[in-house]
Design a protein that fits this description.
- 20% of the residues lie in helices and 40% in strands.
- Strands 3-4-5-6-7-8-9-10 form an eight-stranded antiparallel sheet.
- The chain is globular and about 35 Å long.
Amino acid sequence: MNTKVFAMVAVGLLSTVSCTKNEKQQEENMGKTEIVDGNLQTQVVYKSEKGEELKVTYFADGDVAGAKVQLGTAPERVLKASFEGHSHAPTFTDGKVSWTVRNENTSGVYTDEKGEEVIYSR
């Protein structure tokens, strides 16, 4: 039951992000998230304070939401929705790294294999 609820929340978040009109044209151009097909959205690029890029593509795989993430030139990783903890922020993980969405998808926290957290923003 928790899996379906979280998947519905994550898909709802993704739909809201792709459908919400921003107040400024600049924000619309920076934060646009379109649905490419029924299960995949266009890639979103986030940057850390150090200028590192994190590319994220959200997708749905049946009842499970996921995110494909690529940090810099490293190989792309496929993360699935995580149901651990009590955070209401959508979190995706592969058991080694995680991506937690923050501030209505305008930023997020990437946690690497060493447990180090880095904030990325659009």
